[in-house]
Amino acid sequence: MDAIGALFGVGAEREPYEPVPGEAVYALRYRSETGTLRLLLWPSLGRVDVQCGPHAWVAKGVVETEVIAGLEVIFRFGDVGDAEPEGTLFVALKGDVMMVGG
Questions:
Q1: Phi, psi at residue 42, to the nearest 5°?
Q2: Global pTM?
Q3: By the number of CB atoms within 10 A of the CB, which of 13, 17, 70, 93 ranks highest?
Q4: Which one, of 12, 9, 61, 54, lies nearest residue 34 by Cα?
Q5: Who's near 84: CB < 8 A, 6+ residues apart?
Q6: How many C-alpha atoms does 67 have within 13 Å on its Cβ side?
Q7: Distinct helix (H) and strand (E) counts, the chain
Q8: Residue 84 in this model has a pLDDT that exceeds 80
Q9: CB under 8 Å to 11, separation ≥6 — which residues?
């Protein structure tokens, strides 16, 4: 979470709700070229919600997070077993968001 906040140059704020008692949800807000990005991080659920303007993406079962300094954060999600993740959610500093599944 700290690495994601550092990428966007913002701090994570704890949301006033919890999926279960004691399990926090964190929000990061960042003004990008395409609009305001809002990332909700649900660590206990392995879930990430991303919103930019009227558009939204939800990745459940996040198994890996990669931060590429100065560029983007990548969330890989899905039941992986011995295979590749089922999907990938990319969130770039410029505000571009792309989800690939398959």
A1: -115, 80
A2: 0.91
A3: 93
A4: 54
A5: none
A6: 12
A7: 1, 9
A8: no
A9: 5, 28
Q: What's the rounded Cα separation, in Å, for the pair 29 and 42? A: 15
18 lies in which domain range?
2-101
Rounded Cα gap, residues 58 and 89, in angstroms:
9
Count of the separate structural domains present in the chain = 1
Alpha helical stretches, state H, the chain: 2-8
Asked if residues 35 and 95 have their Cβ atoms less than 8 Å apart, the reply is yes
Tallying the residues shown for the chain, one arrives at 102
88: pLDDT strictly greater than 80: yes
> Per residue in 14-67, pLDDT tens?
999 999 999 999 999 999 999 999 999 999 999 999 999 999 999 999 999 999
Beta-bridged to residue 37, according to DSSP, are: 30, 52
**Residue 44 CA: distances (Å) to CA of 24, 33, 47, 70:** 8, 31, 8, 27
